[in-house]
Amino acid sequence: MGSGKRSLTTAAMVLACACAVLSAPGVAYASPTPAPTRTPTPTPTTSPAGKDLEAIRKKLDALYHDAAVATDAYNAAEEKTKQQSAEIVDLARVIVKGQDKLDELKDRAGAAARAQYRGGGLPPEMRLWLSDNPQQYLDGAGRVLQGEHATQGLLAEMSRTQQDLEQYAKDASAQWQKLEANRQAKATAQKEIKKQIAAAEKLESQLEKKEKERLAKLEEEAAYKAQTAWLSSGVLAEISGKASEQGKKAVKFATDQIGKPYEWGAEGPGSYDCSGLTSQAWSAAGHGIPRTSQEQWKQLPHVDVKDMRPGDLIIYFDDASHVAMYIGDGAIVHAPRPGRTVTITGAGSMPILGVVRPDA
């Protein structure tokens, strides 16, 4: 129990695109008729050096997507680590209180045993026969019997307290093992994030300045094409929901972060990842939500795209690896990926998995 207690004590210390499709910039809470679409001028995808920039764009998308998946795993492990650390501290406090209670019960039991010993060793019949006042003796014997019952109750309480302490110690040990497992999961995810980002940066570093400019143009046009297809479905005409008061606060917070850099694992105030931005925006609106995009998709109420309103969260890709906040007029605000800043873009510029509403 001594080494376990020491361990527990240690634990206790322990919109480029969107601007092209929206009629006006800024935050809106209604859904006007979208601006007429334009046909982008085709951009050559092969550079003079023979590089296939479209293939490079797709490769970069895949690398940053994998980094986003790893980031979600890192954030999830980080949240679990915080929760388990807090639970271990709480268990340590309970164990300290339980140990104090057990010590007190032992003192009381010891005092009762000493008092009983001082009562002498004569049989009860002999003490009655020798007594000058039999009634007084009988009264005293009744009190002794009550004391014996109380002592038995004391011993039973000591046993229960001891069992509780043993269970608390087992619980703390199990939580400690989970904590260590999540720390390892976090470290593994961190390595994966760095690996994917490093590969993407290496790929980009091999491009000349003009190639990078053409690549950026390709990225813009790919997002524009996806947004145009989404708008062409007529979905925007069906979206007319107005933001709730909390939704307005969340949108204001998120749009106030525009221009701040993306940083994986970041929750502000200087930088954000995608779910860090959305979770902090809703926290600022007075409504806490899960930290990661995958948990936001799992835990928050789902709504149809046609029913979404500003402040709702749009979850992207089949694995729910990206999240953005709908702000109205077919636009979102989000933290895209490493090397980018919080920005406004078209809601249909990426494959939509679904929509969730924090304040449903």
Radius of gyration: 33 Å
Record the strand order, biggest sheet. 1-6-2-3-4-5
Number of discrete helical segments: 10
Secondary-structure element string? HHHHHHHHHHEEEEEE
Largest sheet: 6 strands, antiparallel
Overall 3D shape: elongated
Q: Which structural class is indicated by helix and strand composition?
A: alpha+beta
The span between the termini is 48 Å
The whole-number mean of residue pLDDT values reads 78
In short:
By secondary structure, this protein is an alpha+beta fold. It has helices at 2-13, 16-21, 53-118, 124-130, 134-205, 209-232, 235-238, 245-256, 274-284, 293-299; strands at 302-303, 313-316, 322-328, 331-334, 343-346, 352-356.
Written account of the structure:
With 360 residues, the chain is α+β, with helices and mostly antiparallel strands. The chain is 61% helix and 7% strand. The chain has 10 helices and 6 strands; from the N terminus they run ααααααααααββββββ. It has helices at residues 2-13, 16-21, 53-118, 124-130, 134-205, 209-232, 235-238, 245-256, 274-284, 293-299, and strands spanning 302-303, 313-316, 322-328, 331-334, 343-346, 352-356. It has a 6-stranded antiparallel sheet. The protein is elongated. The relative contact order is 0.16. The model is unreliable at 1-43 (pLDDT under 50).
Topology (SSEs and partners):
Elements: H1 2-13, H2 16-21, H3 53-118, H4 124-130, H5 134-205, H6 209-232, H7 235-238, H8 245-256, H9 274-284, H10 293-299, E1 302-303, E2 313-316, E3 322-328, E4 331-334, E5 343-346, E6 352-356
Antiparallel strand pairs: 1-6, 2-3, 2-6, 3-4, 4-5
Helix pairs in contact: 1-3, 1-5, 3-5, 3-6, 4-5, 8-9
